[in-house]
């Protein structure tokens, strides 16, 4: 019978003994073990060794550098800096030295090799060329090179994983432009700028109303007035080409806005290629309301004051009449309730005496 026993030591210790006695067998084995926690190195003599660039001594195969020198082979002269500041230059925001993919040597990262045999790269060894987007289980669809996590496509291919043949047919518009100049064509589809809608970035549902934002330019271009009158050509001519008309020919929304003089301007805008590029048709006549009549305003004000005064007097008169009527009714009610009006005075004698003539026959 053979027994195979493994003993593991997790700390330094001097001689320790233990006994091995399998069940059913009378034989016992006492084992005494000890550990060697210090290397038995045959270090070369001398404070400056060629292995350490003559800047340090060798201790068990590792360079122990003289003052002002650091590094695996003491090849870094730190000068007035300290080792902590040099190591800090190898750390990005997360504080990990060389992203855990390299060694900090004299304030710069020396990157390790990847699992695939290539090297990490970048100032902090943050990049590798093995972890890019795949398409059909192929890195960069086999149509590009992986560079720092992003695919760099070969000529004739595009897309985040180089999965699409380069083509603009699906992005072509009716006027033979690509996405109306308001987006880019990727994988034969328009990637529109913010607010513009697919498929061709023609309309912008989230953009400000052009009738309102272009009013000042329309006023100065068409009628030489408004807040932009002095610098109209500089501000407006590059973004708007206009023509004065008597009747509209553009099939777009009609704008009707009030200008700085209180007149109504009618115009139409058509957005051309790009973001801020318009063609405008402006009616050559403005609709200005007639100024108010001063005499009518004064006369109306006087008449209104007179009418209001009369109405106030009538109201006061009505209130006084209602108050008097109420007091009179109250007096009548109190008069009816009084008891002395029906009482007889026992001392009262009527001054009138009625005498009957016995000889009067009535004829």
Structure description:
By secondary structure, this protein is an alpha+beta fold. Helix content is 19%, strand content 22%. The protein has 5 helices and 20 strands. The chain has a 4-stranded mixed sheet with strand order 17-20-19-18. It starts with 15 loop residues before the first strand and ends in a 26-residue tail after the last helix. The model has no long low-confidence stretch (mean pLDDT 84). Belongs to the integrin beta chain family. This is Integrin beta.
What is the structure about, briefly put?
This protein has 363 residues and is an alpha+beta fold.
Per-chain topology:
Elements: E1 16-20, E2 29-33, E3 56-59, E4 62-65, E5 69-70, E6 76-77, H1 83-88, E7 102-105, E8 108-111, E9 134-135, E10 138-139, E11 144-147, E12 150-153, E13 157-158, E14 164-165, E15 183-186, E16 189-192, H2 210-213, H3 215-223, H4 232-236, E17 240-245, E18 254-258, E19 264-271, E20 278-283, H5 294-337
Parallel strand pairs: 17-20
Antiparallel strand pairs: 1-2, 3-4, 5-6, 7-8, 9-10, 11-12, 13-14, 15-16, 18-19, 19-20
Mean pLDDT level: 84
Which structural class is indicated by helix and strand composition? alpha+beta
Span between N and C termini? 185 Å
Helical fraction equals 10-25%
Low-confidence stretches: none
Strand order of the largest sheet: 17-20-19-18
* SSE topology string: EEEEEEHEEEEEEEEEEHHHEEEEH
Largest sheet: 4 strands, mixed
Shape verdict: elongated
Give the count of helical stretches. Answer: 5
Question: What is the percentage of strand-forming residues?
Answer: 15-25%
